[in-house]
Amino acid sequence: MTAGSRVIGLGLDRVDGPAKVTGAAVYTMDVTAAGLLHASLVRSTFAVGSITSLDTAEAAAAPGVVAVFTHENAPRMKRPAWNLLTPPPPVPLRDSSVHHYGQYIAMVVAETHEQATAAADLVRVGYRAAGPAALSLETPGAKGRGNPYFLDAKRGDVESALAAADVTVDATFVTSANAHNPLGLFSTVAHWDGGRLTVHDSTQNPFLIRDSLAKVFSMSKDRVQVLTPYVGGAFGAGLRLWQHVILTAMAAREVGRPVKTVLTRPQMFTGVGHRPETIQRMRVGARRDGTITAIDHEATSPAAKVANVLYPVTLSTPATYRCDNVRGRDRQVRLDIPSPAHMRGPGEAEGNFALETALDEVAYALGIDPVDLRLRNYADVHPQTGLAWSSKALDECYRQGAERFGWAARTPQPRSMRDGRWLVGYGMAGVTYGHYQAKCQASVTVRRDGTALVRSGATDIGQGTYTVITQVAAEGLGLDPADVTFELGDTDLPRAPQAGGSGLATALSNAVHDATLNAVERLLSLAGADRSSPLYGCSAGDVVVGGGHLRHREDVSRSESFAAILARAGRPDLTAAGSSAPSRAENGVLLGSAAVSRFGRAGRRLVEATRAVAPAGAFAAHFVEVRVDPLLGRLRVARVVSAVDAGQVLNEKLARSQIIGGVVGGIGQALFEEITVDEGSGRVSNATFADYLVPVNADVPDLDVIFVGGPDATNAVGVKGIGEIGLVGVAAAVGNAVHHATGRRLRSLPITIEELM
Ligand code: MOS
C-alpha cells in the first residue's frame, strides 16, 4: 500500500493555533474544579542546614486557610523508582534537613490563591544553617568524581598525538547556569475521587508522572490519570517529576478537595531544574595540512547532592570529526544546589561551544578557512564505531549554509571588516547531534463519516506535535488533514514517550504511520473478503489510499470509500493500533561508542555484529554575523543562517519555527543568560524576568533557515528530531564571529559588554 498525495512536509498552520490564540486551549493553570483549593509553597532561605522550629499557628489561622503542611505533619510518601534519564526528586517534607536554597519546607492550602500566598508569609521558620555551602564548581573542596554513567569515550592515543602535533590549542571554557523559563508557569491540579487520582500537570512526560505518583502513593498505575493537553513551554524543565507535583497530590488527598499549585517565577528558578554551569578543558592537535590529529575534551558539571542527573557534556565530541585520537571525559561535582536538569541541547550546547570554538582557534593557527577545516576533517562514517551513518548531509549544511550566508565575502583577518563605526565579524560552527528514540504506541480510528481520530498520550509543548502528527496520519490514510483529529496529553491514551531528547517526532510519527498502515490493512481485509466490494480479492500490494477511498493501484474503476466499507461491515468505525520502537541498530550509538572505547577491538566486533549503521541525529551549521561597537562594547547579532539536515521534514513551517526558536535560545546562551547566586545563602539573585536576561525581539535579527539532506534510514518516516539542534552551535558561532570582529577570543558564556570594551 502506498499513501495518497504528500501531506507530510507541507507547511500547514498549527492545527491547535486557533484554540491557543482564542483562549479556548485549557492549560493546567486554567483548570478549575468544584471546591478547588489553592496552594502556596514556602521555600528555605538558606542553602544547607536544618529547620530547628516551625510555627504555623498564625498561617493556619489566616483567612481562608484550610491546611498547612510541613515535615512535622506531612504523611509518609515513597520515593519513585530511580531511572537513568529522569531520576526522581527526594521525597518532599520528609524531615528537618535542608539541602539547597529554595527547598520546599511548607505548603499552605487555602480557598484562594491570594489567601494561600498571604498565609505562606506567616509561616515562622527557625533554622540552623550549616556551612559553608558548596554552591559552585569553583567552591574550594567541592568534590569531583568520574562520570558515573560510563559514557566517557576514547580512541587512539591522545597524549602522543598532541605531543606530535604541528599546532595545538589548549584552552579552558566556562559556561554559565541557565534557567529554562518557559512563559507558562509550571502548574499542577490534583483531584482524588474514590481512590482514583487525576492530575493536570505542566509536563513533557505524562507517563513518568503517572507511574511515579502511583509509586509515591502506593497505588496501581491504572488508578492515576495525568492530563496535559497544552503546555506553555518547557525546554526540558518538564522532563522530570518535581516535588510540587507530589505535594499537590498529597495535599488534595489530605484535605479531600482538588488543589491547584502554580509556581511563582522565582520558584521556577529553583523547583524545576536548570542548565548547569560547566568548566571544560579542550585540547586539539593538528598537522599543518589541517588534519586534526587529537581531541581531548574534559568537562566538569555539577549535580545536586540529593538528586542525580545524567549530564554528559563531552558525549558528542567523539562522534564529530574523523580524528584518530579522541578522548571525552566527564566529571561531576556534588553541590548544595537545586538539581540541575536537561535544558534544550543538554550537555551538547555546552560541549559544542568548547569544541567548535577550539576548531576556530585551530583554523586561525593554521591559516585555514573554518569551513574548509571542518570539511577536511569530515567524518564520513561514525568515527567512534566505524559504522556508516544512517544519513548525513552535514557537508551540505556547510556548503549551502556558506553559500546562502555569503561566507566567501569574509576576509579572515580579525578586525578587517567594518561598517562605519561597527566592527563586523563572521563566525560559524557545525553541529553533530545524537540520535534518540524511545518506544511509542498510538491508535487510529477511521469513522464512517469520513473522519479519523488519532490518539497517543504524548505532549505538545509548543513544538507542533498536534500538527505534524495530523499530517502523518492524513497522508497514511489518504485523508484531508482537516478530517483528521489528533488527541494527546492523556495517560489513558496509548503510551508515548517524553517530548524530549529530540526524540518524540521520530517515535510518534512512526507509531502513527504504523497505525495507519494497520487501519488500511484492516479496511482492505473487510473489502477484499467481500464479494460485493469492488476491491474483492485485492491484497495490500494492489491498493492505494486517497480521498477517503481505497483504490486499486491500476484499475481506477475499482475503488471503495472507507465509509462504504464500514457501512457494509455494519460498523460505525474501525480502530487499529500502531507502535514504533528503536531497533537494536538504533538503540545505541551510545552503547556502541562505550563498547568500542571500553573493550577495544572486541567491542568493535560486538558493535559490528549487532548493527549495520550508526543512527544519525540531525546535523547543522550556523553562520552568524555580529557587529561590535568598539567604543561601547555593544554587540549585536546581525544575521544568522542555519542550514540543517533534519531528515524528512514533517512540516516545513513548524520545522523552521523549531530552528528559529532554538537559535533564539542559542543567542540567549551566548549573550544573556546566567543564573547568579548569592554566595552565602544560595539565593538565586536574578530570579525574575526583569533580572534574568533573555533575548527580546530587539536582540534577534531575521533568522534564515534552510533544510538539506533527505529521509533518514533508521525509521519508516525518515524523521530526525530537531527540537534542540537549533540552539546548539549558536554560541560558538557567535563567539567565533566576535573573535573575527574584534580579535578577542572569549571562552566564557555569556559574552558580556564588559569583555568587549
Ligand atoms: Mo529536551 S532538554 O530533551 O526537553
UniProtKB/TrEMBL annotation:
The keyword Oxidoreductase appears for this protein: yes
Any one Pfam family match given in the protein's UniProt record, by short name: Ald_Xan_dh_C
InterPro entries, sorted: Ald_Oxase/Xan_DH_a/b, Ald_Oxase/Xan_DH_a/b_sf, Ald_Oxase/xanthine_DH-like, AldOxase/xan_DH_MoCoBD1, AldOxase/xan_DH_MoCoBD2, AldOxase/xan_DH_Mopterin-bd_sf
Residue ranges of every copy of the Aldehyde oxidase/xanthine dehydrogenase a/b hammerhead domain listed in the record: 22-131
Domain of life, per lineage: Bacteria
Molecular-function annotations in GO: iron ion binding; oxidoreductase activity
UniProt entry keywords in alphabetical sequence: Molybdenum, Oxidoreductase
UniProt-recorded name of the protein: Acylaldehyde oxidase
Origin species: Virgisporangium ochraceum
